Amino acid sequence: MWIALLILAVSTAFSEILYVASAASLRPVISEILESFTRSNPGVRVKVVFGSSGSLYAKIKGGAPYHVFLSADTVYPKKLIEEGLAVKESYLEYAEGRLVVVYNGIRLRALDDLESANRIAVPNPRFAPYGKASVQALRRSGLFERVKDRIVYGSDVSQTAQFISTGTADTGFLSMSLALYMSVNFIPVPEHLYDPVIHALVITARGKGVRSAWEFVRFMKGEEAKSILKKHGFGVR
């Protein structure tokens, strides 16, 4: 009897809910990552909120109770550290994203073909790292001034994908991971046209004392997480 009670007490002690704020570009891969993570951490339940990296940063700064922040860039996690809202020792650059142009209803062979598009969907560069990379690519290729009147901005890559899938736009910029998930036609954007999209994570100040948050960081450093990320079109570090 006492053994059963001891087992129950131990299992209860290690039962936690981990609150994760994740960049929308990770939506296609996060479920597989969390499935693998919880398999090796059976006492942990994970709740995820998606959004643009900038909007999630603002929510954390405003007091949102997330334990781990998975950003699509390095800027916002570093800001949280500087502001005393995240744990410096937990900072991890875990992946590099690839930028692609998705097309639907028109044929794209190169970036210059965007001039034939009616609407071009782009994540909002103020909040979404893939949006910032998209505008960089358009400017460095000399296309921005020629197509700027046809750009429609989504709040993040997920809304941008919706614009394309619903026909609001016939082409647009997305992460490769999302394009692969959607099984749509796309061409990679030459990498010299945009700064590297480095994904970083950090444990927030609220998550500092949460054991599963540290276990999650350790998991993201391992080969299993790297294998999943590579399968979904990310480069790993």
Description:
With 237 residues, this protein is an alpha/beta fold. Helices cover 40% and strands 24% of the residues. It contains 10 helices and 11 strands. The strands form 2 sheets. A 6-stranded mixed β-sheet has the order 2-1-3-10-4-11, with helices on both faces. Strands 7-6-8-5-9 form a 5-stranded mixed β-sheet. The longest helix has 14 residues, at 27-40.
- Return the structural class: alpha/beta
Strand content: 15-25%
How many structurally independent domains? Answer: 2
CATH topology of the largest domain: D-Maltodextrin-Binding Protein, domain 2
Global mean pLDDT: 92
Quickly describe the structure.
It is built from 10 helices and 11 strands. The protein has 237 residues and is an alpha/beta fold. Mean pLDDT is 92; it is low at 1-13.
Keywords:
D-Maltodextrin-Binding Protein, domain 2; disordered N terminus; 5-stranded mixed beta sheet; 237 residues; 11 strands; elongated; 40% helix; 6-stranded mixed beta sheet; alpha/beta
